[in-house]
Amino acid sequence: MVDSTPQAGAYPALLTDPVLRRALLMLAVLSSVLVTGAFGIELPTAVSLGVFAVLGLIATVRAFTDAEWLLAFAIVYIPLNKVFVFEVFGGLNGTNLVLIAVTLAWIVQAMRRREPLFRHFPFSRTMGALAIWSFVSVIVAIISFGPSFMTGDNLLAFKEFISQFLLFFAMLNLIRGGATARRMIIYLMVAFLIVMLFGFSEWLDKRDAHSMEASRLMGPQQQPNDFGAFLVYGSGPFIGMALTFMTRPWVYMFDLPILLVLARILVSTFSRGAYLGLLLGGVAAAWGRGRRLFIAGIFLAAVAVVAMPSLIPESAMARLEQTTSRKSETGNALESSAEARLILWQAALEMTIEDPILGKGFKAFPVLKHNYTTTDVPETDNHNMYLYLSSQMGVPAVLLLVLVYLRAYLYSVRLARAAADPFVRVIGIAGLCTVVGVFVTNIFGSRLTDAAVSMPFWVMLAVVANLSADRPPGESPRPGDPAPALPTA
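^ that's the sequence the OP posted. Answer follows.
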């Protein structure tokens, strides 16, 4: 069970942590370069690249003994990597450099400490199985389409997909102790605020646009549905703070305005899957806080759906009503994007039925979809992460991902309900919000294929696992570390 005794790492102590202050100073310098893009200011390339290079080098050198700065650097930079590419040479860019640095730090620290590269944590084996299954899907694709298939854009897509697992396992093994795990959430909140600043600046520019398409916010992810997904994934800590400290005046001065701006920005993405993800994620967070808040959350969610039925994506309503074609005679037709989504879902489902174990191979869906559709649909994404996995990697990949969700949810409940440290309870509530938000959002889109979108999810998983794990053999107890919540798997 989770440690029920007061801990030195409680929330007030965290704010005065000198380690945190030094890391935030480093992030402040990095952010001073990154946020310029939110205001349309273009710094000279030498300046922005120089700051990136100097801070990255400092964080990398430190990482061979203490990786915290490097992890903080990665958490803040990667969600902005499409805005700040930082091309170096030969296709080497800022994201690749960060991934290489994190990987080297992970390997070197494991060697120095004489530890296994993959230490045993909650749901780490399940994540490892999912990563291995992803590589199997590449082999299936090569067998089906030839070696040249996994080159060019497909190779880049797989690199983006698999880099998420690399980041997760690196963070999982590089985080040392409960205090470090807590600070990771603070760095995630900083990253979220920077991304929100980009969204708010864009909203100011587009708020008077005369059409929905012209007013949709792209965010640093440069795609409105991806931007909406990131906002859902990263909102958990702020919702957890509001629910945990709801009697504190500072919540209404600091946290509530952030959540109101979040709501305004999210609405302007026009991503109904993200709307529903945040709504149900908030209900899950209320469940972590207590039964009364959960009942209130269910009531408010029901009122919101009744008052604004557009919160439910049209494609989902059509599926529930088993509507698969236009009703042209009555003039009642599905929105074109919703109809296309249904066609793609059906194609992915048929692929899954044909090859339920291994799927058709990584990135096979765009190539094969025309064989399973009666109507030509130009889109190549099937707009459902679970069908994305099942059609290309088989049903086992979906089961593994859902098992990760389930175990992360159970561990988060224990942290939210049983931890003595109020900030650990915040993290538990945030974990519930994030897991449910990710689960729901990915019903209506493939939003776990790029770390620029999914970074908050992987950070939350790594932190929840660390706060719930057994200490490695021979390691002395650390202030603020809760005991294991559940058996690991």
